[in-house]
Amino acid sequence: MTSSNVTHIECSRCGKQLAPGRLYNLCDCGGPLLVRYRLGPDTMPRDAVTSRAKTLWRYREVLPLDLDKSPVTLGEGFTPLLRATRLGQRLGLPHLYLKDEGTNPTGSFKARGQSVAISMARELGARKVAIPSAGNAGGAMAAYAAAAGLDALVYMPEGTPVMNRLECAILGAEVKLIAGSIKDCGRALGERIRSEGWFDISTLKEPYRIEGKKTMAYEVVEQLDGGVPDVMIYPTGGGTGLVGMWKAFAEMEQLGWTSGKRPRMIAVQATGCAPMVRAFERGAKRAEEWMDPATIASGLRVPSAVGDALILSAIRESGGTAVAVDDDAMLRAVREIAEAEGLVTSPEGGATLAALELLRQRDLVSESESVVLFLTGSGYKYLEALQAAAQTGVL
Predict the structure, then answer these.
(1) Pairing state of beta strands 17-18 and 96-100?
(2) Domains and CATH numbers, the chain
(3) 3-state secondary structure of 364
(4) Has this prediction a pTM greater than 0.70?
(5) What ranges in 16-135 are assigned the alpha helix state H?
(6) 130: phi > 0 → left, psi -120 to 50 → alpha, else beta; which?
């Protein structure tokens, strides 16, 4: 008997409905699974959450863990939404905001998804969890697995920054370095998952990481006193956050938090790895794998995404777009954000400002619109990349 508002788990591809309360990866058809809730105006009134602890778990009624169970939490969520006054003046955007996800535990937005995913994995009986990661997801998974008392296994590309590798090892995870990209890590890890019984917490290969990521949208609406921004610009690798936030806006309409307005969702990728941008521009419903991915932003070095159809659907349904920016533009934007607003963000965070500059040049964002840039990780975890950029004069 559940004490949550979850009604069922639903396949995003074939629509099959599954019973909650069990461990799941993908649907039999290969589609990602989504959690569905019993929602209405009385489920979670917006004024009811204001006095709660400032973590993502303030939104318990729209999270999958039973209400009487204790989550695995390190204080993640409710990150600052900062008015970017000086950047806004330069860009002619008086309503520009920065969502600083670098203040999360382990320094990135990945803490959100892992808190919920590990909470559910522990509750549903998993004892050892595994993930392929190019950086921050592995560190977050290792941290929450440690807090939950679970064994952790992380497969990482050989080029993963030292900080990310050390973080996983210090947190007690078994770390394996693999030649190639995160996709190659996923293939290699799959063999151990099948033979040794690890539970796979890869991006969108289980239904609960997305539930943690979606809380970014709930927070933005709450922090804007019920307002909905016109544009959200999000660095997109696996795309869980973008898909999760689009899901959250549909939920908030049912809850009565919003009246139907939704933001245009802008996906940002690197020119050296832009499968979603290519698919969007071609009008495709699925994205082909990007061969030989190369970018300084490890979180964007994702040659193919399990949730590609969901990402593309969210962009199109919202009236948004997908843009690619090069590494030099990302790094210049990192410096611009630092000098103007006092935040040292990751290259992925810099990509959002670089994308906004392109959108302004193309007259795709107007002066009157409110815009939120998602700075998904702290730049202090990218010291190698930033040092190399500084030495070459890019930064």
Answers:
(1) unpaired
(2) 81-108+209-391 (3.40.50.1100)
(3) coil
(4) yes
(5) 85-91, 110-123
(6) beta
Locus of tokens 């804007």: 224
Helix (H) or strand (E) segment spanning residue 10 = strand 6-11
CA distance 351 to 237: 12
| β-bridge partners, 371 | 96, 231
Distance in angstroms (rounded) separating the CA atoms of residues 122 and 128:
9
Q: How far apart, in whole angstroms, are the C-alpha atoms of residue 176 and residue 170?
A: 14
Give the Å distances, CA to CA, from 95 to 19, 84, 138, 240, 356: 43, 8, 34, 26, 13
Question: Which tokens is 322 given?
Answer: 């997908």
Strand-by-strand arrangement of the 231-235 sheet: 81-83, 96-100, 371-375, 231-235, 264-270, 321-325
- From CA 238, how far away is CA 232, in angstroms rounded? 17
Q: What is the pLDDT of residues 295-324, one digit of tens each?
A: 999 899 999 999 999 999 999 999 999 999
Q: Encoding tokens for residue 203?
A: 């991006």
At residue 1, the pLDDT reads 40
Alpha-carbon span 114 to 240, nearest angstrom: 12
Whole-number Å distance between alpha carbons of 94 and 84: 8
Task: Return the sign of the alpha-carbon dihedral for residues 321, 102, 129, 176.
Answer: positive
The number of residues in the chain equals 395
The one-letter code for the residue type at 175 is V
What integer pLDDT is reported at residue 2 of this predicted model? Answer: 57
Token representation of residue 291: 């061969």
Distance CA 373, CA 159 (A): 27
How many other C-beta atoms lie within 10 A of the C-beta of residue 233? 27
Q: In whole angstroms, what is the distance from residue 82 CA to residue 220 CA?
A: 10
Sheet with 199-200, strands from edge to edge, namely 174-178, 151-157, 128-132, 199-200
Single out the residue of 110, 66, 333 nearest to residue 210, CA to CA.
110
Which residue in this structure is represented by tokens 């007690």? 172
* Amino acid at residue number 235: P
